[in-house]
């Protein structure tokens, strides 16, 4: 059903509470990639130009229901202010008297960012008391947080029970593109998975087995699978409670004739640091205790290249290694180049996830793929064919 968008509502003089996904990568208090902030600009600018009073809500990281300074949105307010070329008021509170006062003081065309929504325990529990308090600050809710659409939280889903929720331009664009891609993906359809959010993303494979022809696995995700195959993985990151699931997925894949391709070698080190000693090790030989896999190795890169040949639809989610450190960035860079090449050969290619999007930008290949989604988990669940709670809560257009 077609969703209502910000274009369908009158914003003049209205208080608009807008959920954005400003969950940007940070290092030592500095934003290392501002793509997600830039992606929300068209919606914010539109609301400001129409004379709305804009109150922005976002989470950053996973502070688990309490204020933690390293997850403050203050640096984001500063970057947003530069990008908008106007003042962005910032209140270091998520709700309460200070917030109310700041909202009352807002004039048309002004913008206010509240502190990290996840400083409140109620946010991730979709607590309706909290959602109501946010709703009471405004006349309308704009949901532009596609990256958070797979979460049913108070600031994107609960709030829609109290005031109308409409889609922002980014949300609209993501839904349009991903719907087109999922409706009828041209085959061979190949999914490349990596990254660190293993428990979040491993379940997705189950549904993808119904759709994809091959699934290539790198990143930290590979080690849960290698463990399931009885390999020695040393101190590599893996998830103990997902090993059985990984084993089941491997056998289900072979029943269905879907190829799950795992790396055959890895780059290992004893510390997650630049400049440390690193080695290439064959997965078959195992990784010694005290060493961890931080990237896929050169033979795996060749293998992935062979497996990708001829693909017509490619979805890539999650880096192949710790690409933030150059010593472990080769696998991610090579896969990014493969995806760019295959796009040139006519495949539809979709990259999803905050870090994967940052990686493709880092390598200057952003314009060489079909679509870079701002959502990782969100785009994957969308491609699985699930209805995302953060989309379901947006009002539908009346016929
Ligand atoms: N082998 C690995 N061990 C530990 N972390 C890894 C490994 N491979 C990739 N990562 C990390 O995964 C992170 C991204 O994971 P994730 O959040 O799942 O991806 P995305 O944001 O693209 O959805 C990156 O910060 C990267 O350093
Ligand atoms: O970065 C995000 O997801 P992603 O890493 O899957 O792209 C979203 O902001 C959601 O964050 P969450 O996975 O902590 O709920």
Structure description:
ATP binds at residues 201, 293, 324, 353-356. The protein is an alpha/beta fold. It has two domains: 6-172, Rossmann fold (3-Layer(aba) Sandwich), CATH 3.40.50.1260; 184-384, Rossmann fold (3-Layer(aba) Sandwich). Helices cover 35% and strands 17% of the residues. It is built from 15 helices and 17 strands. It has helices at residues 35-49, 74-84, 97-104, 121-124, 128-135, 169-183, 198-201, 204-208, 221-228, 243-256, 298-308, 330-344, 354-362, 377-384, 389-392; strands at 15-19, 26-27, 30-31, 53-57, 88-91, 111-114, 140-143, 165-167, 189-193, 214-217, 259-261, 265-269, 278-282, 292-296, 313-317, 348-352, 371-373. α1 packs across α2 (74-84) and α9 packs across α10 (243-256). It is globular, with a radius of gyration of 22 Å. The termini are close together. 49% of the residues are buried. The mean pLDDT is 96.
What is the averaged pLDDT score?
96
Number of helices, where a helix is a run of at least 4 consecutive DSSP H or I residues: 15
How do the strands line up in the largest sheet?
5-6-4-1-7-8
Distance between the termini: 10 Å
Structural class call reads: alpha/beta
Estimated share of beta-strand residues? 15-25%
| CATH level-1 class of the largest domain | Alpha Beta
The CATH architecture category of the largest domain equals 3-Layer(aba) Sandwich
Q: What is the molecular shape?
A: globular
Number of beta-strand segments: 17
Helix content: 25-40%
